[in-house]
Amino acid sequence: MKVLTWNLFHGRSVPETEHALLDEFTDKISGWDWDVALLQEVPPWWPPVLARAAGADERTVLTSRNALLPIRRWIAERRPDLIKSNGGGSNAILVRGDRIAAHAALRLRWRPERRMLHAVHLAAAGIWVANVHATANPKPLARADMVRCGETLGRWAAGAPALLGGDANVPDPTVPGFTDAGGHHIDRFFTRGALTVTVSPRTLERGGLSDHAPVLIELRTS
Hints:
Elements: E1 2-7, H1 22-31, E2 36-40, H2 47-54, E3 57-62, H3 69-76, H4 80-83, E4 90-95, E5 100-109, E6 115-122, E7 127-133, H5 139-157, E8 162-167, E9 179-184, E10 187-192, E11 195-203, E12 215-221
Parallel strand pairs: 1-2, 7-8
Antiparallel strand pairs: 1-12, 2-4, 3-4, 5-6, 6-7, 8-10, 9-10, 11-12
Helix pairs in contact: 1-2
């Protein structure tokens, strides 16, 4: 199973681009070979579009800065680098080739910004895959978010294998009960139970999109 994690930087690029980049992000995500994609900082109206283009099912949770979303969206679709993260946020899980048997979500905290953990249970693979974007600052809150993610995902998965991925916002988080499977800087993967990493995490070429590199890991149940 191939799992991708990518923080989309609210649909922005480095350097800045003075137009919406939905088409460019869609081309990249739909063109890569993955089974599950864990996406953070996604403009809230993007997940259905990304999923359709990728031939995937999706589950989404809203995160921060979504009040008066139609106004935020109007600006973000015209000048994403003018409104930046104030364009609204969500986290999304996209799944190809398997049925989503269950979806669970937990609000990790309201302040300083709303942060969410969510996960899907894959019917055929028999595993739980979770997505998180931990608190940015202060860093002790990010570490606490990751600990709570491990505790919660462990309960959701019960005895099933589980994978936690996403933006930990610290390069060395600890998730009790899980094994650090690696990643790239703050974008990490953690495993629990009968999961074996067959290809270590590697970054994909993104052509300037986002300030984070997309990271792909390959695993199998064992």
